[in-house]
Amino acid sequence: MLEARDLRVVYPARGGRAPALAVDGVNLQVRPGEIVALIGESGCGKSTLARALTGLVAPTSGQVRYQGEPLDPRRMRAFRKQVQLVLQDPGGALNPRQNVFDAVAEGPRLHGERAGLRDRVHTALARAGLRPPEDYVRRHPHELSGGQQQRVVIAGALALNPAVIVADEPVASLDASVRGEILKLLLSLRDQLGLSALVVSHDLGLAWNIADRVAVMYLGRIVETGTVEDVLLRPRHPYTRALLSVLPESGERIVLTGEPPDPTRVPGGCRFHPRCPVRTTGCDTVDLPILPAADAVACPEVTP
């Protein structure tokens, strides 16, 4: 449904700093009816990749493909109906002066789809779990809880009947008690409507609960990808192992030194080597290839 091919996004130099390499040669697929979790630390390029996949950031090189066809600027309007972005801060995503009806109806109105607008808005709200929709359409964002605000944002995406949702940290700003409800909603939308989804998060628990496949990102690159069971139960890359080690049941804690490198100063060789607890000679000069057969990264310390 949605694919990145050798996607690269470089932000131009500013204030005397070098250009920032936000996304570097990413290959990623979201298949029909599939939920893919994109996991990584803050600053690794996840949100930039999400925005590039939804047409909000222009790639420096590489391609975004939808249903097998390269994204054409002439077809961008139709593409944006089919691929919707859900932002992480529902309070910031909603206009405080708009009521719920206008917030959900904004997309169809922008695309000139005003026929049957009331029924479309009510259906989207009901699918997002706000029932009966008549109780919510005249409310404003300040009258809603955080979970209800996020459901309104999701309803705004559903109002255009998309095929793919790209959700950027959809539960990061919500209480723990509400997160499960939103994740359950994403699963039900996949099952009932056949939606595909890319869910961006730093939460490994989210990946385990809703994803079919996981892609782990570090400093602009996908370092490991595979099924949920392969990546979370049998991680092969040292970075993935370090992320998983923070879970209570993981056993020994792996503490990484320092912060993720600055994207304006990407280290040579394997870009994880400055923080890697198992680095060996040559890691600073030789980058790690992706092994297509194993769908994971080769590392001197990891047995294929």
From TrEMBL:
Acetylation among keywords: no
Alphabetized UniProt keyword annotations: ATP-binding, Nucleotide-binding, Transport
The keyword Nucleotide-binding appears for this protein: yes
Molecular function as annotated in GO: ATP binding
Domain ABC transporter positions: 2-244
Domain of life: Bacteria
Family: Belongs to the ABC transporter superfamily.
Protein name: ABC transporter ATP-binding protein
